[in-house]
TrEMBL record:
UniProt entry tagged with the keyword Membrane: yes
Record-given protein name: Type II/III secretion system secretin-like domain-containing protein
Cited Pfam families: Secretin
GO cellular component labels: membrane; type II protein secretion system complex
InterPro entries named among the record's database cross-references: Bact_Secretion_Sys_Channel, GspD/PilQ, T2SS/T3SS_dom
GO annotation, biological process: protein secretion
Amino acid sequence: ARPRILTLNNETAEIQIKTDEAIGLASNTTSAEGTASTVATAERVETGVFLKVTPQANIKTREITMAIEPRVVQARSGQTFSGNTFRDPEERGTKSHLRIRDGDTIIIGGLLRTDISNIKTKVPILNRIPVLGAAFRHKDLKETERELVIFITPHILREELAGNLYPRKKNIIREQTHPSQKMRAVDQALSFIERQR
């Protein structure tokens, strides 16, 4: 993904690449008779990649100081109990304060993500044989570790420069509510900056 965002000086911008995932939770209850039981409930949690950036631009030196907060949220592989699978959300993140010149690129790494998948293999027909069929079925748990690497290239957009290109620049973000329209406006502004460099 190569998302682009436009924000004001000292204002926080956020990118979210997420899914709304159901997480199974287990709770223990005890009846009046003293019988203990486990009740399974589901809770929805937002998982994915989240990035917050707060820029502070110095027009004279063309430097940008940024507070950067990337987060990775995912559901850990669950355990099965009484036919229910329970998974816990897991979050990793960092906070950084960096200074960079206009147009330079920052690279942030070190956020690891583990993807776990169950792979089932079986021999057709033979795996259906009662009792003996289990010998022709195989389950394998595969873990894939990935590192999230983030590239950030900030640009300072002068209001008077953008105003010449867009007479209605001040109202672009306010008036355009459709995400695709906002993205086109951001892409046009950033492309114009690149041509001026």
